[in-house]
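Lay summary. Proteins are chains of building blocks that fold into shapes, and those shapes determine what they do. In this project we predict the shape from the chain. Here is one chain we studied, written as its sequence of building blocks.
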Amino acid sequence: MRTSYQWLAVLRAGNAEEILATSSVGSAQVMDSMINLFVKWPANRTILEYMEAIIQAQMLPLHVYFSVFLRSIRQGVLVDSRSLDMLCRLGIQLVSELPLSPVLSMVEPVESPSATLLDALTLLREGLHRPYSTLHDLQTSSSDVLLIVIQYCPSMVPQFSPGDAIQILTVSHEIMQHPTLRPDLLSALESMNRLLGDNLSVPNPLPTAGSEMLSLGIPPRSDINAEDASEMTSCSLFLWSIVDCRAHPYGCGNTERTLAVLLGLYRWNGVALPNFCAELIRAAVLHYLEAFQLKDIEPTLASNWSSFVYGRLPDLLLQFLENAGSTQHQPIMESAMTIVLEKVARQLDFVLPFQSTMDIDDGSEAESNPSLFRTRFLHALVKRDLLSPFMAKVLYNDWKEDGALPSVLLQDSTGSIEEVVERLLLSGPEEQRQVLALFLKDYDQQGEFAKTLHKRFEELTESLDLFSVASICEALVNYLAVFDVLALYIPIPQLLQRLLVLVDNLDWEDIDDPQMAMTPLGTVILFLQSIIGRYNLEPTALESKEKSISAEYLIQAGSVESVSSLSSDEEAVYNDWHRALFDVTCDGVEDSLVRSRNPKILLKLAPVLMSEAISKCRSPGAGQDELASLRNGINYLQEPLLNWTL
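And here is the predicted shape, written in a compact code that computers can read:
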């Protein structure tokens, strides 16, 4: 540090201290120069020491350091992960050492506070997608920097422009979907988003609210074009996030939160309700067309967007209009669809191949025909009374009121979705697969089927009907494309919470045949692990303080490596199971052993049991007895009774 202090002495001798202290522009130029040096010599500790010295000497304000450092990321100047982590850690250190120095400043700022906040969000998003390093943990340091910046924001949010606010909300929402985000940061982002939402909201978002919108800095309605790129982008990003992260707490299955964000976007845009609905539908159609082009590579993606456009989107539009205060839905949707069909006409005709009647009779998918795409979507709107049959005919001349495709899901029933769900519960694997295949094709009935299945699921878990629940889980885990679509309609975290409650609350002492119940228990546990892994769900998303449940034991299965790491209670259970599985003189697994403790503990114990048995075979002096013991345990663990534990 001696050289850095000598440098400070030179600066003071040249009267630079007074110049830097009175000019943010001069300070920013000095900081820019030091960043450029850091770019040429990445992760150079000497340059970092110079930065630390000039800030501690209060010759360069702390807010200038953060503004310029974070701005350089946006400008693409700083890209080295080591350098970014070192600058983050220096900023965190300086904040603790200089508690009276502000991180953001409204007085002569280098960058606006909203721009610095957006830069900090961008840094974290970048850190979350970079490989983890124990030496330079950018994820942790960038999270800490964002927390620091957020702490200074509440008093400055009213000064944020609407454009900056919506950008912040969009990036923040994307970051909140990341499975490894820290709970404290998630909470801080939620609070900030509510504050931004309150700041953007107006009491009456309809055309009569012009004065309130102007007070927020939003241009008058006459200055807003329906083709505004920011409006289209915000709708597109929002739809992508709720469909891509459909199974997460903020995903499409959570109707309440989805509608809340939709209302916030609408109120910020300040456009007429038909224009907003038009841009929302247009964004969804463009996502669908993009997925259709990739259908041979990612068939599940095309299936998800087909289900969203034909089934989930019309439901959301109806609920959104009701929450937005609309009393006349049809005139609004008539105007919206007029705009949509005009704007997407070329894309539909370009992406979706032409099909003749002969092609369709040969079994080609109806949604791959531009004409049938239009008619099917209009039928979905007419079914929900969002359009009149007359207006649907006006919008598309080939539309016919009796032209709706028949329900393939109800074709073998009396017309009741409840009957279809019961058939699913009582059928064998092959018939279950047939029902679920029909579910994927029947967009009109998907929403009702999903809600009915969810309700039935709740009833079965409430009554602790393990065998019926396991039957549904087995059908779904073997056909995960169906679960992807179900996640568009129902809140998956709530469904998984119910399964966790079922596993925890089973009374093994009252079960007539506990060993027979072990197999369906394994099915439920494997289903839980499969869904958590498929959607990268964090344990915190499944926790419930009211019900005292946790999914940690599912995610940490296999993490225990030795008997010494077990608690005394767990070690006693371990000894009982070791004797039952690996002692060739023992009679095997007794009912009393299964009843003594919830078998879910075997997720923790089984890997240790195997590891210890293998270790004994490798130890000096091991012989036929140890090998026979290992084989005995392996045979047990390969049976349906216990094969789910490994």
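What the prediction tells us: The chain has a mean pLDDT of 79.
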